[in-house]
Amino acid sequence: xxxxxxxxxxxxxxxxxxxxxxxxxxxxxxxxxxxxxxxxxxxxxxxxxxxxxxxxxxxxxxxxxxxxxxxxxxxxxxxxxxxxxxxxxxxxxxxxxxxxxxxxxxxxxxxxxxxxxxxxxxxxxxxxxxxxxxxxxxxxxxxxxxxxxxxxxxxxxxxxxxxxxxxxxxxxxxxxxxxxxxxxxxxxxxxxxxxxxxxxxxxxxxxxxxxxxxxxxxxxxxxxxxxxxxxxxxxxxxxxxxxxxxxxxxxxxxxxxxxxxxxxxxxxxxxxxxxxxxxxxxxxxxxxxxxxxxxxxxxxxxxxxxxxxxxxxxxxxxxxxxxxxxxxxxxxxxxxxxxxxxxxxxxxxxxxxxxxxxxxxxxxxxxxxxxxxxxxxxxxxxxxxxxxxxxxxxxxxxxxxxxxxxxxxxxxxxxxxxxxxxxxxxxxxxxxxxxxxxxxx
Length: 441
What we know:
By secondary structure, the protein is mainly alpha-helical. It contains 15 helices and no strands. The longest helix is centred in the middle third of the chain and has 45 residues, at 140-184. It is globular, with a radius of gyration of 25 Å.
């Protein structure tokens, strides 16, 4: 059941070339960004996208549009009473999981009822926020951030139940065996000690792990997979922590500023009138470059800066939050390496159980991908309150692309170009589709 192991984040382990001797992916990315795509009409040179946009990316054709005052309104949206109430309920679901597990360890509730209670608690944690958002219509950004955390806690609840169930079965079987041996040999002392002989101060065994401290540490830790004993670092590196916190703050400011300066105006100008399909395609290409750079900054901010800062504060030892996905030559390689916490959770709590239930590797992989597609759709459709399944279908469309790249392009730079192109064009297309649905339907 072990999932976490001591490891450093790839970018933090050494200089930027840690883990790879060359960066061929950078050449492929430059090919994608410098592609001489043009619009289908004879527009001005600044409408040639994305190449011409890259040349004028740091220009201010429409002036400085960054408005820090509007950030205050966003903060007020995040603090609406519906959102604040739902944030508070997440704590209740964590406490409920701990209470159920404690009762099960003491044999106060039967095994089947324990499983049902855990599943009901996890389902309620996921469905109640969705119902509140659909009913009371809070701001889309506030709803998205809430649902993002709801999905994280949901996966942690599943892992908490799954791992404790494994150790509970072993613990209860050992206790029953000791009781049987004691009844057979009454000269021996009755086993009142509830823990195995390997218990030490540094090693926690079931059910000693069922404490508020352990639960809250797992809830805050930058991992989705529960362990009774997480790898820990010896000290907190203050300079390292300061750099990661500074990176998080600076990158967050840059992401919001670039979004206001380039993404929001492009989207607003697109939907002043209901756009035609050719015009919408041109605007998607124009949006691709700024959206792509913002996505890269968001990835670095969250997976490297923020998660490393959180791990450093908690002295969490497993810092493998991502691997070298930028060198991916297949779509499958990208999905397995860009988000390691989710990948580890899916392998441990979904893929391997499916394999143990006699499903083939291909069937298990498809189910895992469908699961991921449903959660992507949930994170977009519920905050916007527009169920269009475009995000789901985009994820499903990755399946034949993954098969194609695995069969024909694996190990070649062409596969890496396909990976970058799918990121470069897929996200702005999704943005335009959902914004159009939000404004006109």
